[in-house]
């Protein structure tokens, strides 16, 4: 039995009884049959209570809940502080306002309360970043899990995309401590991963299941703070668009591997943390003239070229490496090239080969 149905029953009974009482009085005034009038008006009241009660009880609560889910906790806290400040100012002005002549001594306190509460909420929400920054500066570092963290990291929220969870590297990166803060996973992202996990395509199904396993692994790690939120964006259907809008509302970055989401988010002023860019940035840097060992595993596009890969996935094109196909040899780096797909090295066999 739903809550709305219970309220409908309560409204139907209450308005039905009230309608019957009023109908009885109305029937006596109109000099008609009071019982008939009471029954008719009571039935009308019961019907009105059954239909209209949700619009005054559960429906407004649901609408308010949707609005609150769109607002970040930071903004709610700032608004609450502004409202309390406005009420305190109103209390301080109540005594002077009560000395005004009639009827201003009764009207002005209410008007002043509405004005200062609205003004307080408006100012505190608009300047919430400055207020929290001042609080962090004044009261020092914040504590998380009993250890002192950086001032920004403790308050930082990072929004996770489905591509990052399916990729799986987020677990190892988070364990290193470089992503300290709150990893926020919206419910609609989990639903997208669940949809992929239920796909009839075996490859997509495996990717979706890996994404769900990564979420579970993040939640079980005591050193990683993960939150799953029900915050949603009304009127937006695509998951990527919802992430961008939600990131703008929360003023937090998006962690993703999706190139298209990366570009769209940057165009809308949203900070993006891309794991692929991080992986390229931390790859070992080899300069021309340095030597390394590489196993030639395939032929190159040009004659006598051989191709091998480093442990981090960097492609190494070896000029004159085709005769060493299937062998591990020492090569000398001749050129390093940064491409959109990552870093590529060109090399030649060492003289002693």
Looking at this protein, list some descriptive labels.
Rossmann fold; 6-stranded mixed beta sheet; 353 residues; 4 domains; alpha/beta; 14 helices; 5-stranded parallel beta sheet; single chain
CATH architecture of the largest domain: 3-Layer(aba) Sandwich
Structural class: alpha/beta
Global Rg:
33 Å
Number of helices: 14
CATH superfamily assignment of the largest domain?
Answer: 5'-nuclease
Give the mean pLDDT.
82
Strand order of the largest sheet: 8-12-13-11-10-9
Low-confidence stretches: 140-154
Cα end-to-end separation: 81 Å
Specify the biggest β-sheet. 6 strands, mixed
Number of domains: 4
The CATH class of the largest domain is Alpha Beta
Multimerization status: single chain
What amount of the residues lies in strands? 15-25%
CATH topology-level fold name of the largest domain:
Rossmann fold
What is the number of E strands? 13
Mind explaining what this structure looks like?
With 353 residues, the protein is α/β, with parallel strands linked by helices. It has four domains: 3-63, no CATH class; 74-130, no CATH class; 143-280, 5'-nuclease (Rossmann fold, 3-Layer(aba) Sandwich); 291-349, Beta Barrel (OB fold (Dihydrolipoamide Acetyltransferase, E2P)), CATH 2.40.50.110. Helix content is 56%, strand content 17%. The strands form three sheets. It has a six-stranded mixed β-sheet with strand order 8-12-13-11-10-9, with no helix packed on it. Strands 5-4-3-6-7 form a five-stranded parallel β-sheet. A hairpin with a 5-residue loop joins strand 10 and strand 11 (315-319). The longest helix is centred in the first third of the chain and has 27 residues, at 3-29. It is elongated and about 120 Å long. The model is unreliable at 140-154 (pLDDT under 50).
């Amino acid at each position: 039995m739903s809550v709305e149905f219970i309220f409908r029953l309560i409204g139907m009974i209450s308005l039905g009884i009230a309608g019957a009482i009023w109908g009885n009085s109305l029937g006596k005034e109109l000099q008609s049959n009071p019982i008939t009038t009471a029954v008719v008006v009571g039935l009308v009241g019961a019907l009105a209570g059954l239909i209209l009660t949700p619009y005054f009880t559960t429906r407004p609560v649901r609408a308010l809940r949707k609005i609150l889910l769109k607002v970040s906790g930071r903004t709610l806290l700032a608004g609450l502080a502004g409202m309390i400040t406005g009420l305190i100012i109103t209390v301080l002005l109540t005594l002077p306002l009560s000395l005004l002549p009639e009827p201003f001594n009764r009207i002005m306190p209410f008007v002043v309360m509405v004005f200062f509460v609205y003004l307080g909420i408006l100012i505190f929400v608009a300047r919430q970043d400055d207020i929290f920054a001042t609080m962090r500066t004044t009261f020092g570092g914040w504590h998380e899990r009993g250890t002192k963290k950086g001032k920004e990291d403790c308050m930082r929220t990072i929004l996770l995309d489905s591509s990052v969870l399916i990729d799986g590297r987020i677990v190892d990166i988070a364990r290193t401590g470089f992503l300290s803060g709150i990893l926020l996973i919206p419910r609609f992202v989990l639903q997208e991963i669940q949809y992929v996990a239920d796909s009839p395509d075996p490859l997509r199904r495996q990717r979706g299941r890996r994404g769900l396993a990564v979420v579970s692994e993040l939640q079980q790690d005591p050193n990683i703070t993960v939150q799953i939120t029900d915050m949603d964006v009304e009127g937006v259907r695509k998951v990527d668009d919802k992430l961008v809008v939600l990131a703008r509302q929360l003023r937090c970055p998006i962690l993703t591997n999706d190139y298209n989401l990366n570009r769209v988010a940057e165009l809308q002023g949203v900070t993006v943390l891309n794991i692929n860019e991080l992986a390229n940035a931390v790859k070992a840097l080899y300069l021309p003239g340095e030597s390394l060992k590489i196993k030639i595993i395939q032929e190159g596009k040009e004659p006598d070229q051989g191709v091998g890969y480093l442990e981090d996935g960097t492609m190494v094109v070896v000029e004159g490496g085709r005769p060493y196909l299937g062998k591990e040899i020492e090569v000398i780096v001749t050129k390093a090239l940064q491409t959109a797909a990552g870093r590529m090295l060109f090399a030649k066999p060492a003289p002693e080969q």
